[in-house]
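So, can you check this one?
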Amino acid sequence: MSEFDIDQTKFLKDVNYPVDLRKLNLMDLRGLADEVREYLIDTISKIGGHLGASLGVCELTLALHYVFNTPEDKIIWDVGHQGYIHKILTGRKEALKRIRQKDGISGFLKRSESEYDVFGAGHATTSISAALGIATARDFLKKKYKVIAVIGDGSMTGGMAYEAMNNIGLLKKDIIVVLNDNKMSIAPNVWSLQNYFNELMTNDTYNKFRSKVWELTDVLDKKTSDRLRKVAARIEGGVKGVVTPGMLFEALGFRYFGPVNGHNVVNLVKMFEELNKMSGPLLLHIITDKGKGPSYAVEHPQKIHALNPFDKLTGIELKKSEIPTYTKVFGQALVELAKKDEKIVAVNAAMPDGTGLNYMQKEIPERYFDVGIAEQHAVTFCSGLATEGFTPVAAIYSTFLQRAFDQIIHDAALQKLPVVFVLDRGGLVGSDGATHHGVFDLTYMRLIPGMVLMAPKDERELRNMLYTATQYKRGPIAIRYPRGNVEGVELGEFESIEIGKSEVVRDGKDMAILAIGNMVNYSMKAAEILEKENMDVHVVNARFVKPLDREMLFEVFGKFEKVLTVEDNTIIGGFGSAVSEFASQHGFKNDILIHGIPDRFIDHAKPEELHQQLRIDAQGISEVALEFMNRKVHHA
């Protein structure tokens, strides 16, 4: 596969917007699909990004923009990593070369980026609900545009999709839902209906019935043909209820069509042209392959969901770090503990590799559960396990666990159930941007009564925190750690950590820095920088956001006039807020500065770029500390 040159393409060079696409002949779309797919692979191979889902929706995306009058007609995408080809066709062809890079376009759908991005999509299972809101507004305004929701890549495992469909069926709104069934979310689907779909695809009864009847009626006179087709349509309805999932969707109030081949762009166009003439709730079920195109993508769709730069001929990543990640250390540590304790059970929401539970999945599969993209269910499922004496470990990305906030409070904490929450991707995750930064977890977990919340400074502490958490039986307990490589310290044997106990990692006399998680190592380096400014800084690894180490805080506030807290969480309600609240409650008048993520959504860039930008890297912390040291205290 040689260097891709858009200027040498037959179709893609002239397609910048959907209006250009609609100038092509229908049969030209096949050639355009090949060119778009090749351009996508060539581009993402150089910079990394989400690949598999977008490869799978190539023909679907072309067909949608070819038939519907976008942006007047509204296409709402679920899980935005299906949207790369949508971006190519909507004025961002060149911009794709900077996708997910600093100052480049987002890897997800983003309203501020394009009028074609109707609804932002970073988390899954939102498209149908958003489509209903948009369609309802359309009807209030007495407008006539079409609203199309594209849901897929596993999003139908989330209950919100069915809540929305039930509401649409009740309201009978004019909406088209496209179910992109690729048998995957990020990992292989755990959707029970998927088994039904798979059985269908091995059974030709339904499709043969339709095609044979229509072939027969084509040779009959019109009167006989019409009568026979009416009878066939009634029979077809019965067949759909038996051999397709149409019965389920039609019970929800949708008129069901499919399943159809999602890679036949010509047939998709014809199907959408027919659906465009209809009204009411319509659902088109298409079958696609995640990673459609290169053999390595089709054979390993889970691995090519999201990639670093890779060899486009083989799919092999060009630079693979030999340093373990926090995710890997956690996953392997959990297996070690689970082999010693048969009551430990692991639960995740469609992300075994991303959370490190692939090790548990492989070695102790009977105690590993993937519930699909259903975080609310995951938490309550774990709570049920905990009532019967098990130790459920729910490993979920920080940003995704937000979706289960009520269940954490109501089902786990209120009942004092010992559910272990492991929050991967705490802090700034980088190129996935605002929808995926885990910068609210210290805040939303801290405010829950009875919650124990901790964050490790390195991989050894992570293992010991996990061990401590699995031994803790007085209520829910959470560990939060960052994305990326570990510090490189020796792991050692498992050791229990006293709940609520911090550690002093550097003695000093001029100022105290209280840091949490991966900000501890930055703070230590900042202290070394400040030595050159003749500042002797005291650094504490807080370890716990809740409960705080009261003994340490009494000592720090009694010794240091200036106390700087550092975290990669929002400064509102997080670790620094907890320290400030403690000072207020106990009458301390020390000068406290809370340093962390400001009160705004942070865009995408590499984590180290964001740390530098927000001054939470070593250099930034040292500068903030120096400015703070020189700041005058204002008394009322």
Observations:
- Residues 326-482 form a domain with the Rossmann fold fold (CATH 3.40.50.970).
- The chain is about 40% helix and 15% strand.
- Confidence is low (pLDDT under 50) at residues 196-203.
